[in-house]
Amino acid sequence: MKHIVFLTITTLAFAAWAQAPKEPAKEPAKEMAKPMAEPAKQAAGPKIPKPRRWNEDARHCLERPSNTEIIKCAEEFL
User: Fold this and answer.
1) Does some domain include residue 3?
2) Which residue among 19, 21, 56, 75 is least packed, with the fewest CB closer than 10 Å?
3) Whole-angstrom Cα distance, residue 35 to residue 28?
4) Is residue 56 within 8 Å of 73, Cβ to Cβ?
5) 53 neighbors 77 (Cβ within 8 angstroms)
6) What is the pLDDT of residues 21-62, one digit of tens each?
7) Stated pTM of the model
C-alpha cells in the first residue's frame, strides 16, 4: 500500500515539475536596456565565498565568558 502511494506522489510531482513555466512576452525596449546595466555589476567583481571551517576545532570558543559570545564564535565553524 505504501509503495502505491509513494509511486502516485512521485508521478504527480514529476508531472508538475516537467511543465514549462509561463513567461510573459518581453518588450524589446527592456531587452535593449539590460546589456547596459550588466557591465556595472561585473566591475564590482565576483563574490568570493568564505572557506568552510566545519572540519576545524572550535573548542577555543568555549572559553568565552557568555553564551552569546560562544554562539557567535562557533557560528563561524558551521
Assistant:
1) no
2) 21
3) 12
4) no
5) yes
6) 666 666 655 555 555 555 555 556 678 877 777 788 889 999
7) 0.36
Residue corresponding to grid cell 558551521: 78
3-state helix, strand, coil in the chain (%, to 5): 60, 0, 40
Domain that holds residue 70: 54-78
Is 19 strand, coil or helix?
Answer: coil
Question: CA angle, 37 as apex, 35 and 40 as ends, to 5°?
Answer: 120
Count of CB atoms situated within 10 Å of the CB of 34: 9
Q: Which residue carries 568570493 as its cell?
A: 48
What was the pLDDT predicted at 65?
95
CB 62 within 8 A of CB 53: no
The verdict on residue 78 lying in a domain is yes
